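Chapter review: from sequence to fold.
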Amino acid sequence: MTKLPSIVSKIAPDLRAFLDRVREILAAPVSNLADAVISTAKLIDKAVTTAKLADKAVITEKLADGAATADKVGELPASKVTSGTFDVARIPDLAASKITSSTFDAARIPSLDASKITTGTFALALLPQVCDLIVSGTDSGEAVGASYNDMVFVTTTGVTSSTKVLIVGVVTGYAARPSGTAGFGLLARLRRGTSTALVTDQYVAYSAGGYSGNLTSGGSRVIVYVETISSSQTYYLDMMYSGAATSGGCTDAALFVFRLR
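The token string follows.
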């Protein structure tokens, strides 16, 4: 029987050459391998896993769908976005506290509840018109009697449906009494039609003293009333003197009817 050392010594040169060749193959760069020379089945786990790929080794065209789709793209810091335009759906809500300069376009300002305005003064030009004048009338220099008589009256026109109106009467007048008599005054009232008193017995002037000699007392009054009407109406502003007065007069009287919006 041939001894083992003798056999080893005979094949040693060939074995050494074989091992050297294996080392050369293992040390060779991948670029020296022809395409498709090594199949996946020859890999240890029979798959080309991510761990076996070098950084940036796969180009987009080699991906299964030929594109770097959204699910393949990692998180991108905002500092990387330096040009282009975002779709509105991509812009998150922004807290108002982040807006500290520049000016909003009027279309970007939402409606504001009136309860939020608690200070400051509106310019007159910014206030909406709340009423329209329907009719007005004036008179002056009329004598006033001991019972109500009209100083001025007006009739509304163009009212055919439910309409809220504001009636404003303004009077200035005087009353007089002789010496030694009790108090006296001058009254005004607002009425609709021939008999409906809306506001009555409003003092325009009044005096309660027991003065000697003749006394005249004068003053003015504004009377306001709001109601809803459905047809044209006639309004009267009446005056009379009262108490110990023996005479009186209307210096000026004016009556206005407004349609409220």
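Two observations follow directly from the output. The first strand starts at residue 131 and ends at 144. The chain has a mean pLDDT of 81.
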